């Protein structure tokens, strides 16, 4: 088998995101598991909320720097939201940066690295559904609310808002499943059809 560098990088990325399975017959993109999506949301919200709570340990100067970065990031998100020819890929990259900055409150780079490693299936849903389901202005407003609560150190409310924000994917996957059931585990599709 002749793999070029780009193919090898793609293989490593998918395999590292637990989105690829390898068997004797070849490598295949795994079907999305609803249970895995919920588990990813649980882990992600635990890590991000834990990081936000750690902000109390930061010096006022460091806390202010991170909040300023969050606000600049949000400004960029709003600009993309106002652009009729918006780049959803650019917005999603800024969204990832926003959540990476939230993790930086922990002072631990591993926090975001861990989330990056486990969120492959979640990202697949985000990319499949973003342009049709998610509203940029709504996401920006949620981000603003989270920043506002962190600024006044109302961290429990910030975490509640963050959890709600992160768990939205557990509803948005349903439209992707209706349109592309072949992407999902057969048992999840059957359970979805019984309920709807």
What's the quick description here?
The protein has 196 residues and is mainly alpha-helical. The protein has helices at residues 5-16, 34-53, 60-82, 88-103, 110-118, 120-133, 136-151, 155-167, 169-179, 186-195; strands at 20-23, 26-29. The model has no long low-confidence stretch (mean pLDDT 88).
User: How many β-strand runs?
Assistant: 2
Task: Tell me the helix content.
Answer: over 70%
| SS element count, helices | 10
Order of helices and strands: HEEHHHHHHHHH
What gyration radius follows from the Cα positions, in whole Å? 18 Å
Terminal-residue CA separation: 45 Å
In order across it, which strands form the biggest sheet?
A: 1-2
What is the makeup of the main sheet? 2 strands, antiparallel
Q: In one word, what is the shape?
A: globular
């Amino acid at each position: 088998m002749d793999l070029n560098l780009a193919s090898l990088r793609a293989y490593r990325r998918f395999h590292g995101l637990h989105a690829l399975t390898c068997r004797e017959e070849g490598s295949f993109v795994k079907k999305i598991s609803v249970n895995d999506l919920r588990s990813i949301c649980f882990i992600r919200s635990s890590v991000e909320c834990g990081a936000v709570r750690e902000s109390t340990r930061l010096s006022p100067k460091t806390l202010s720097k991170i909040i300023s970065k969050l606000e600049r990031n949000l400004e960029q998100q709003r600009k993309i939201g106002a652009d009729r020819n918006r780049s959803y890929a650019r917005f999603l990259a800024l969204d990832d940066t926003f959540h990476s900055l939230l993790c930086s409150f922990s002072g631990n780079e591993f926090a975001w690295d861990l989330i990056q490693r486990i969120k492959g299936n979640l990202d697949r849903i985000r990319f499949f559904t973003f342009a049709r389901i998610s509203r940029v202005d709504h996401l920006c407003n949620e981000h603003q609310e989270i920043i506002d609560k962190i600024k006044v150190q109302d961290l429990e409310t910030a975490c509640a808002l963050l959890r709600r924000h992160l768990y939205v994917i557990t509803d948005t996957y349903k439209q992707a499943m209706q349109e592309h059931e072949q992407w999902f585990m057969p048992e999840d599709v059957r359970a979805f059809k019984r309920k709807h």
